[in-house]
């Protein structure tokens, strides 16, 4: 039995997210599984490194699937390019040891979030960024990033209902870079709770415009109360950049 | 009577091009005229620097319109941002002398064309580039650009039927730049015939893959026969970057 690792790029705009929902044709996972079924004749479930929400993009989502197919990786790559919709691209395929598991073996992830920070909006980046015309205090946001970094209970920065699972995560890096009118926020960590990046982003933007203070981060960590953090920013600015393995 | 110059950015994907066609709601000109009508109560025709084809984008299309409105330019800018669809953005407004005419006064234009030149296509640039996985000989294409530059009869590089108007144009610069997997071709000239940039691009790509030779350019200039040049490349890779005025 072969175990194949896929690295996948997608424009999430038209989709209800990564995870297949029944027979829905509107998920990334569903689209890819349909093509693998056409390609191999096998009914295969692919395992993603994790879900992405409706509208979220990926530059390097990772998944794996097991197959008896004898097709070469190049032939499979060509098949994917021919039959997948243009907004889902399989960038790379690798044969892996049978024990490789895209979710269990993931050691960390990098996400980025684009903010279009100019009075004049963009006709081209509207689907790939959040429009924020207000002045943003970068220094204050960078101080807040320092507070978010490290190992904390991120319950207050997540959309989770009550859970018995640990909500402690470690963020190793957050960086803010300006590329022209785009402010790009990059988050690297060992794992992220549901909507955690988008809620941290909403909180950083509140600090950038002065609606929250840097010190409010401490309070959110202490109480774990979601409503003290900023809004969940729109998914169209969010990219899953990369999934890290050993 | 005020005469207002508009600088406009648009994602051409959803539109049938710049020029209003009857009552069609599917043109850039039509969309903007409808908003100006709402804004001023006046039935106004705007004058573009020239047409762009269905699917072609613009970073700096220029148009002008005359109005009795006493609104400030900032108020107008806000009105446009609020009511235009997100894929059409008025970037700048300027009050001009009454004789300013966006078409007659244009001294030249810059267009660019994006080619996605990598085996693996892009999920994000598909609407903003042409996918060309083949190896392209940049040196040969640059030699061809040198031949295209200057003052020539570009009849063979246009989609014009018989015309009595001059088909002589001057191209002052063509440049090829690589940005990652994107090859960007930039064309600067005093004017461009219908589909001229897209036919020059198709010809350059044919030279890049070896289907045509650099010397074939001379033949196309001599005979003026359209069928000797390359195909018209798709409009989604084309951008009107800038219109030049004195």
From TrEMBL, chains A, B:
Function field: Formation of pseudouridine at positions 38, 39 and 40 in the anticodon stem and loop of transfer RNAs.
Enzyme class at the top of the EC tree: isomerase
GO MF annotation: an example: tRNA pseudouridine(38-40) synthase activity
Active-site residues (renumbered): 53 (nucleophile)
GO annotation, biological process: tRNA pseudouridine synthesis
Name of this protein: tRNA pseudouridine synthase A
Domain of life: Bacteria
Subunit structure of this chain's protein: Homodimer.
Binding site for substrate: 111
Pfam family, one: PseudoU_synth_1
Family named by the database record: Belongs to the tRNA pseudouridine synthase TruA family.
Origin organism lineage: Bacteria, Bacillati, Bacillota, Bacilli, Lactobacillales
Enzyme Commission numbers on file: 5.4.99.12
Domain Pseudouridine synthase I TruA alpha/beta span(s) in chain numbering: 8-105, 144-245
Keywords for the protein's UniProt record, in alphabetical order: Isomerase, tRNA processing
InterPro entries associated with the record: PsdUridine_synth_cat_dom_sf, PsdUridine_synth_TruA, PsdUridine_synth_TruA_a/b_dom, PsdUridine_synth_TruA_C, TruA/RsuA/RluB/E/F_N
Reaction it catalyzes: uridine(38/39/40) in tRNA = pseudouridine(38/39/40) in tRNA
């Amino acid at each position: 039995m072969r175990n194949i690792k896929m690295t996948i790029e997608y424009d999430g705009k038209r989709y209800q997210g990564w995870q297949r929902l029944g027979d829905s044709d509107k998920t990334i996972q569903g689209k890819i599984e349909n093509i693998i079924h056409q390609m191999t004749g096998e009914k295969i479930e692919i395992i993603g490194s994790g879900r992405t929400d409706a509208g979220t993009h990926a530059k390097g989502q990772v998944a794996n699937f097991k197959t008896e197919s004898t097709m070469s990786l190049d032939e499979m790559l060509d098949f994917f390019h021919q039959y997948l919709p243009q907004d889902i691209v399989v960038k790379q395929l690798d044969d892996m040891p049978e024990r490789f598991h895209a979710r269990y073996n993931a050691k960390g992830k990098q996400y980025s979030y684009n903010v279009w920070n100019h009075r004049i909006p963009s006709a081209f980046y509207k689907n790939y960024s959040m429009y924020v015309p207000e002045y943003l205090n970068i220094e204050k946001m960078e101080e807040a990033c320092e507070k978010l970094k490290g190992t904390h209970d991120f319950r207050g920065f997540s959309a989770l209902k009550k859970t018995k699972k640990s909500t402690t995560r470690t963020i190793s890096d957050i960086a803010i870079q300006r590329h022209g009118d785009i402010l790009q926020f990059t988050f690297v960590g060992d794992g992220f709770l549901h909507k955690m990046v988008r809620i941290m982003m909403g909180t950083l933007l509140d600090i950038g415009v002065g609606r929250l203070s840097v010190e409010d981060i401490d309070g959110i960590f202490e109480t774990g109360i979601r409503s003290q953090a900023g809004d969940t920013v729109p998914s169209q600015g969010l990219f899953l950049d990369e999934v890290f393995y050993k």
